[in-house]
């Protein structure tokens, strides 16, 4: 066994080895458990463990402070000194870092900093797995096949700095995706859930939802491209607004490069983006969506700075009552733009004051509308308007006078999430959801369904 094996000891020893002006050490202890299934039967399962160590060295010079970042996996005590020296060499060989700031100090230490890392394992599925088996039996008797996977990860992050920070955060992340198909593969439906512990997911309810969607698909209706009243479910709203959040950096807006830039200079802060009282916010303490309450930055970029590691995070409204309230900033970009410090936070909530479920919004529909399942293959077309393109997937349904009457073909869409907010005529009840497109990178979201009077289905797609 290594002489130094506990995460906090790894952090402390790396800090002791430092010979530069500043050092940040991030130890991430990972564990995961997963189940996969196909054709109503489990196929694989597994449990993994791992460690990643990131060392950020800073060197002060006459022209400014330089930084060097090196990350390694499976780090032991014998690997520490070479890793620290590599980060220091990278800093000494680099020019001044544009985002240089004094390392964060004065943040109270986490009381559990010296505790063992939290771990997940197959026991996280103790109640879920039998319920999934029951869902397989119901699907088999109903003539449909279930495919999908369940994954649970737990990451314990230990952050230490030469300025005295000793912080710790445990982050559970669970995702469940369930896909139902008929044996001839002519019809497919998808549902997904985000969870912290698999205690709040119900395979029976998910299978019932899939069975209903497959029944809707028994009637096929072909529609041309065009603008349709469309009900966007929470998962689709999440995918669109997560991309909007990623595109909301203050510096890019001030420099005239984004949809949040004001023509002629400045930003659109304070401008009304939505007639509905929509509030888009992030909060590290949001119930069920808890995320790190301090900055964890393994590298610097448009929306993060390694110099901000350990900076406390506070609840932030990006849009408040329809008005653009904040753009993301690091300490460096806040100083450049004159805007408040507002780092990115790893969750996103949209509240619109609505009380209707998606099913109730369907029932309240007059005339004709489309009901989507999810979006995928989302790509940016024009950053100046945040125009996105992508495809519908796993079921687009036709609603007529409050009833789903059949399945229609898939479409390619062209829309800007910012423009959609300005045209939304109704927001439903906010609920936890799993983004389909961005679920590998961003899982903690709660969104309402949105009714869009004229969603742009730009062309017909042949995808399922």
Defining key terms:
464 residues; alpha+beta; six-stranded mixed sheet; 9 helices; 20 strands; 38% strand
Would you give an account of this structure?
It is a single chain. With 464 residues, the protein is α+β, with helices and mostly antiparallel strands. Helices cover 20% and strands 38% of the residues. It has a 6-stranded antiparallel beta sheet with strand order 3-2-1-4-5-6. Strands 11-10-9-12-19-18 form a 6-stranded mixed beta sheet, with helices on one face. It has a 5-stranded mixed beta barrel with strand order 8-13-14-16-20. It is globular, with a radius of gyration of 24 Å.
Structural class: alpha+beta
Largest sheet: 6 strands, antiparallel
First-to-last CA distance: 52 Å
Unreliable segments (pLDDT under 50, ≥5 consecutive)? none
Lateral strand order in the biggest sheet: 3-2-1-4-5-6
> Counting H and I runs of at least 4 residues, what is the number of helices?
9
Percentage of residues in helical conformation? 10-25%
Beta content comes to 35-45%
Gross morphology: globular
Radius of gyration: 24 Å
């Amino acid at each position: 066994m290594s002489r130094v094996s506990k995460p906090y000891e790894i952090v402390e020893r790396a800090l002791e080895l430092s010979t530069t002006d500043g050092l940040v050490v991030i130890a991430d202890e990972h564990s995961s458990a997963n189940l996969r299934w196909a054709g109503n039967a489990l196929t694989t399962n597994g449990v993994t463990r791992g460690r990643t160590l990131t060392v950020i060295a800073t060197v002060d010079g006459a022209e400014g402070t330089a930084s060097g970042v090196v990350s390694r996996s499976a780090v032991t005590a014998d690997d520490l000194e070479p890793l620290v020296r590599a980060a220091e060499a990278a800093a000494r060989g680099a020019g001044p870092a544009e985002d240089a700031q004094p390392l964060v100090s004065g943040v109270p230490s986490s009381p559990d900093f010296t505790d063992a890392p939290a771990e997940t394992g197959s026991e996280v599925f103790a109640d879920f797995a039998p319920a999934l088996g029951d869902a397989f039996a119901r699907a088999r008797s109903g003539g449909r096949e279930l495919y999908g996977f369940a994954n649970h990860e737990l990451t314990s992050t230990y952050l230490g700095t030469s300025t005295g920070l000793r912080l710790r955060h445990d982050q559970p992340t669970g995702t469940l995706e369930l896909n139902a198909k008929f044996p001839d593969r002519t019809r497919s439906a998808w549902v997904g859930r985000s969870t912290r512990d698999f205690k709040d997911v119900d395979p029976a309810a998910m299978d019932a939802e899939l069975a209903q969607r497959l029944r809707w698909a028994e009637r096929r209706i072909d529609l041309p491209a065009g603008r349709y009243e469309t009900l966007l479910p929470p998962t689709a709203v999440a995918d669109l607004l997560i991309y909007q959040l990623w595109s909301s950096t203050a510096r890019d807006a001030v420099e005239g490069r984004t949809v949040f830039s004001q023509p002629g200079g400045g930003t659109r802060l304070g401008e009304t983006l939505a007639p509905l009282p929509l509030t888009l916010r992030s909060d590290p303490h949001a119930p069920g969506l808890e995320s790190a309450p301090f900055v964890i930055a393994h590298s610097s970029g448009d929306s993060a700075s390694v110099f901000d590691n350990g900076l406390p995070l506070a609840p932030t409204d990006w849009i408040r009552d329809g008005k653009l309230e904040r753009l993301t900033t690091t300490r460096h970009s806040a100083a450049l733009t004159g805007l408040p410090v507002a780092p990115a936070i790893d969750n996103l909530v949209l509240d619109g004051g609505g009380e209707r479920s998606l099913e109730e919004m369907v029932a309240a529909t007059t005339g004709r509308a489309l009901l989507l399942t999810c979006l995928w293959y989302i790509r940016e077309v024009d950053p100046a308007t945040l125009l996105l393109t992508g495809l519908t997937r796993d079921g687009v349904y036709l609603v007529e006078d409050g009833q789903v009457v059949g399945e229609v073909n898939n479409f390619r869409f062209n829309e800007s999430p910012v423009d959609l907010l300005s045209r939304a005529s109704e927001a439903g009840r906010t609920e936890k959801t799993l983004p389909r497109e961005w679920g590998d990178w961003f899982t903690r979201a709660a969104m309402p369904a949105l009714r869009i009077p004229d969603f742009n289905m730009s062309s017909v797609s042949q995808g399922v």
